[in-house]
């Protein structure tokens, strides 16, 4: 069986080399691009596999690349790599059609899992992700106020901003946040946001 193709787009040469080594070792066929323009040119024909792209790049950033891919009719699954604090950007990317995002620096296994999941999603015969179904069941246990805090967190709101919006103190927001993190079993805010967006809650 042919290896799955991963198109890697990153303007950082060291990052490209590191990803190429990791993905090649994991059995993927890797194609590297230093910018989005080269990827778009290469995919002028029908492409296969999935795309792994950085979100912050000069000229065409990850969001613009995603817009252009979709405008050109490309439906390849896209996984975004983000820097710390890019959660609102990542949420926007997923609303544009990216299927996942991972925050740098990431664990190798997290990246490989995201890519396998993205490639499965490209297969229409693939059943719904059981981990996502489990997350939705946990979200169903949240109180109304916890759901409101979740909604604002996914929107990129800080504790102060959420407190103002809900007319509660930032400290109270943090208490609700801790409760909903425990109930949803999210290991970090990024993981919580990622699952919420995948579940269509954002």
From TrEMBL:
<keyword id="KW-0238">DNA-binding</keyword>
<feature type="domain" description="HTH luxR-type">
    <location>
        <begin position="135"/>
        <end position="200"/>
    </location>
</feature>
<dbReference type="Pfam" id="PF00072">
    <property type="entry name" value="Response_reg"/>
</dbReference>
<feature type="domain" description="Response regulatory">
    <location>
        <begin position="5"/>
        <end position="119"/>
    </location>
</feature>
<keyword id="KW-0805">Transcription regulation</keyword>
<dbReference type="InterPro" id="IPR016032">
    <property type="entry name" value="Sig_transdc_resp-reg_C-effctor"/>
</dbReference>
<dbReference type="InterPro" id="IPR001789">
    <property type="entry name" value="Sig_transdc_resp-reg_receiver"/>
</dbReference>
<dbReference type="InterPro" id="IPR036388">
    <property type="entry name" value="WH-like_DNA-bd_sf"/>
</dbReference>
<dbReference type="InterPro" id="IPR011006">
    <property type="entry name" value="CheY-like_superfamily"/>
</dbReference>
<keyword id="KW-0804">Transcription</keyword>
<keyword id="KW-0597">Phosphoprotein</keyword>
<dbReference type="InterPro" id="IPR000792">
    <property type="entry name" value="Tscrpt_reg_LuxR_C"/>
</dbReference>
<feature type="modified residue" description="4-aspartylphosphate">
    <location>
        <position position="54"/>
    </location>
</feature>
<protein>
    <submittedName>
        <fullName>Transcriptional regulatory protein FixJ</fullName>
    </submittedName>
</protein>
<dbReference type="Pfam" id="PF00196">
    <property type="entry name" value="GerE"/>
</dbReference>
